[in-house]
Amino acid sequence: MQGAIDSTPAAPGHEGAAHEEHQDLRVLGLITFLASEFLMFAGFFAVFLVFRGSHVQWPPEETEVELLLPAVNTLILVSSSWVINLGTKAIKKNDLAGMRKWFGITAAMGAVFLAGQVYEYMNLGYGLKTNLFSNCFYLTTGFHGAHVFIGLVLILGVLWRSRRANHYSDITHTGPEMAEIYWHFVDVVWIVLFSLIYLLTLI
Amino acid sequence: MAQAEVSMKPTEIQGGHGHPDKWKWYDYFTFNVDHKVIGIQYLVTSFLFYLVGGFMAVLMRTELATPDSDFLSPELYNAFLTNHGTIMIFLWIVPAAIGGFGNYLIPLMIGARDMAFPKLNALAFWLNPPAGLLLAASFFFGGGAQSGWTSYPPLSEITANLPQTLWCLALIMVGTSSILGSVNFLVTIWKMRVPSMAWDQMPLFCWAMVATSVLALFATPVLAAALILLIFDINFGTSFFKPDAGGNVVVYQHLFWFYSHPAVYLMILPIFGIMSEVIPVHARKPIFGYKAIAYSSLTICLVGLFVWVHHMFTSGTAPWMRIFFTISTLIVAVPTGIKIFSWTATLWGGKIRYTTAMLFAVGLLSMFVFGGLSGVTLGAAPFDIHVHDTYYVVGHFHYVLFGGSVFGIYAGIYHWFPKITGRMLNEPLGKVHFVLTFIGTLLTFTPMHNLGMQGMPRRVAMYDPQFADLNQLVTVGAYILAVSVIPFYFNVIWSWIKGAKAGPNPWNAMTMEWTTDSPPIIENWEVLPVLTHGPYAYGMEQADQVGPAGEPLATPRS
């Protein structure tokens, strides 16, 4: 049946692009999936907003959030989105060393973000069970942190695989591309989360 | 365009040129990436869960045959009630209609060799059996989840905690399965149609699956969010849904129904797709209103996301919200009515063959009109407040789910069984099955409306003796339904082994899946087909020159 594939009517201009076409499908699949996953965070955000709207004092006095560290963290995460983009740009120009450099920096920035989050958790002085606000706070930021961790694993996986000869090139770069898209997703969710949970407390 | 290179994948896994023509029996019990194997895996497991859920229903109806609680303990009754609903929705109708038919038919209907992501597809299926095992296990650790399939807090937080957690995890698993499946369906339909097939030449089942997938993608993660919060409330001491600590139980209802109302359309949209395939084939007529049916699926998908509050009219919902959600709910009846009209118009003047598939399709039409109309009455807030949480609601949703979804699955099985197995189902036995199912459905679910109007509450094991007569009638109907599956299961097993050979196209259908062998070879076609006529071009002079609704095509695209 393998031979039969060759005889399939193909659209003109696509004969040589066969491999890349397949990779596009994976990117499309990832974007579709992330659109869905965004809705899960939307559910958490909706819950947060409902509770915020129905409580006079929000966040309650003893559970206010720290602002400086998360702001720095935000800066790191948001700029890492730009760094990872430099990485995929590099591989699209066949610059493997450049890709590994930028992806390495992104991974380091992601790790710093996670470490910062853990430090924040340890120094806030209240836990998951303290009150409704802390419930919401730890659940949303925790779930986001888990997603950052998955993104980190993806980036490290790309770096690990990039040691193979000719694994990534200007034609085959779906892996780095998907890691980048996932990283942007994590970033976008964080921007919404940061605005809702941290910035809105200022108002 | 993409099908050639994507199809290489399963071939490679099977060892390139050396792969077999047919799968061995044990391939169906392993992590297989062929969409046809996965489709059959979905169908067979869901039909097994159908028996489990049905068994629970029969036990509950036995309990309800008398007003007293003398057959099941209250805890066991509640556990059966919860798990009957959960299994029937999440492990029977959804996997059968979406996973089973969707996986089996979509690549065949659009001329692809497999789904876009075969491994992801297999993973999506293999999330289902463990979910079923979690539900089964919950019976041995604390007597099963007992708070109804909706699991509203605070009830779900104060009854049997461990089984409730297992229940939540099971639902998250089937939800993940459904999201992964939807990603696969959407990308496959979007990118992997044969180059000659334009969007408007695609079979209507695929259109229905597009709408279903979009709905599943947007609604399911919200349920996951609700269940995660519930798990944290039960196990980790948070208080999202604990009013005494500032939480809010109605928030759970919003999140739950934001998924679970669209889930109703997840269970019926694929069935609408099956109807749109079965009716034209057996009426030998082009489908009436191809575009109307396709677009109405998308309309249902869109409007269906904005009606969830009609489940919560009695939860302290503000009057302005009741008005908004009453109107949006009633609007859903319009695209549904368009479909019903189109099918009826397709039947009109057709050379109808009264095959079992057609009988179930027509049976569905009658049942669904009734169930749909009782849905319209429930969509109106004033009436809903009157019959809320009574057997009227139970009657309504069983009419649409049994008379709709289950009839549709049966119609689909009778229609595509020759394609799936290469053998015909026994028609006389099928007709016995249809008659028993039809009578059983009428007898079981019609009196429930009367019971509800008279005020019998749902979810109870004991009731006032004044409801005894009608309840006995319902129980008799339930027994008939239980008996009705016997000829069906016998028919399927016997015909699969010994049935008459079907040949590639026993119904003389026009859609693409009938252009390959029955059962299809491993990569579906030796040479991928080229679209020469629309999927419903019946009775045309030059069948190869017409579009889906029978209109001539300017030039066949190839």
SSE layout:
The complex is a heterodimer of chains A (203) and B (558).
Chain A lengths: L1 H5 L11 H37 L13 H25 L3 H28 L8 H30 L12 H25 L5
Helix pairs in contact in A: 2-5, 2-6, 3-4, 3-6, 4-5, 5-6
Chain B lengths: L2 H11 L21 H30 L9 H37 L7 H9 L1 H11 L16 H4 L2 H31 L12 H32 L13 H35 L6 H15 L14 H29 L8 H24 L1 H7 L3 H31 L5 H28 L13 H31 L60
Helix pairs in contact in B: 2-3, 2-4, 2-16, 3-5, 3-7, 3-8, 3-9, 3-14, 4-7, 5-7, 7-8, 8-9, 8-10, 9-10, 9-11, 9-12, 9-14, 10-11, 11-12, 12-14, 12-15, 14-15, 15-16
Explain this structure to me?
The complex is a heterodimer of chains A (203) and B (558). Chain A is an all-alpha fold and 203 residues long. Chain A is built from six helices and no strands. Chain A has helices spanning 2-6, 18-54, 68-92, 96-123, 132-161, 174-198. In chain A, helix 3 runs antiparallel to helix 6 and helix 4 (96-123) runs antiparallel to helix 5 (132-161). The N and C termini of chain A lie far apart (66 Å). The model of chain A is unreliable at 1-23 (pLDDT under 50). Chain B is globular and about 65 Å long. Chain B is built from 16 helices and no strands. The interface between A and B is large, with 46 and 63 residues.
Short description:
With 203 residues, chain A is mainly α. Chain A contains six helices and no strands.
For the termini of chain A, the CA-CA separation is 66 Å
The greatest interface between two protein chains, and residues involved on each side, is: A-B, 46 and 63 residues
The ordered string of helix (H) and strand (E) elements of chain A is HHHHHH
Coarse structural class of chain B: mainly alpha
Q: Ranges of chain A with pLDDT <50 over ≥5 residues?
A: 1-23
**In percent terms, what proportion of residues of chain A is strand?**
under 5%
Mean pLDDT of chain A: 87
Helix count, DSSP H or I runs of 4 or more residues of chain B: 16
H-E string of chain B: HHHHHHHHHHHHHHHH
The helix content of chain B is 55-70%
Choose one word for the global shape of chain B: globular
Number of strands of chain B: 0
Residues in helices of chain A, as a percent range: over 70%
Individual helix count of chain A: 6
Structural class of chain A: mainly alpha
